[in-house]
Structures are given as C-alpha cells and as structure tokens.
Amino acid sequence: MNKDARFYFANLGADVMRCILASEAKDNQRYESSLSRARRTLNALRSARRPEAHEEGLLLLRAMEYAHASGDMLKFRKNLNSMIMPLSEVLK
Predict the structure, then answer these.
(1) At how many degrees (to 10) do helices 28-46 and 5-24 cross?
(2) CA 90, CA 39: separation in Å to the nearest integer?
(3) H or E stretch including 2?
(4) How many other CB atoms sit within 10 Å of the CB of residue 5?
(5) Whole-model pTM?
(6) Which of 2, 21, 23, 80 is the most exposed place for a label (fewest CB within 10 A)?
(7) Over the chain, what is the mean pLDDT?
(8) Please, which residues have CB within 8 angstroms of residue 82's CB and are 6 or more apart in sequence?
(9) In this structure, are residues 91 and 9 in contact, taking their beta carbons and an 8 Å threshold?
C-alpha cells in the first residue's frame, strides 16, 4: 500500500495525542513509548516526499515536548485537533 503524507500526518496526530494522554495520567513510561512511536511516524512522513509536511510534523513534536516540559499539556491538547485538520487539508 502506498501511504501518503495525509496518512502519516494523521497518525502523527494520534501519536501526539497518546503522548498528551500519558502525560496527563503522569505515566512517564507510556509517554516515552508514545514519543518514540511519534518519532518513527515522523520519519515515515519524511519518506512521503512532502518536506513541508515533515517540517510541520517536526514543529508539532517540538511544541508538544515544550508543553510537556512546561506543564501546559491541557492547553496543548485543547488545540491539537484545530491544528491537525487545517494542516492535513493542505496536504491533499
């Protein structure tokens, strides 16, 4: 199956949401596991030959890690869906 940038970006969004939920549950092991999965998805996104999608995904992970470090995951979670939808539409 030939997977495109939208597929990988949507999966990255799901991976990031798993990170957020693990962080909110104070489950560091699950957070780290989900973060590793998100990084693998980001690498797969690079193979989709849409450099702008990869860059947006990289920024998304950086923002999530910043929110995690600063304890602001609730706000980040509330905005995640509104960030993912417009970006995935651009990748059509």
Answers:
(1) 170
(2) 22
(3) none
(4) 25
(5) 0.83
(6) 2
(7) 88
(8) none
(9) yes
Q: CB under 8 Å to 36, separation ≥6 — which residues?
A: none
Give the residue-averaged pLDDT of 50-78.
92
> Residue 10 carries which side chain, given as an amino acid letter?
A
Which 3-state string (H, E, C) describes 41-54?
A: HHHHHHCCCCHHHH
Residue type for 71, please? G
pLDDT reading at 68 higher than 70: yes
Q: How far apart are CA 49 and CA 78, in angstroms?
A: 29
Place of tokens 């651009």: 90
Q: Which residues contact 23 (CB under 8 A, 6 or more apart)?
A: 31, 68, 73
Q: Which amino acid is at 8?
A: Y
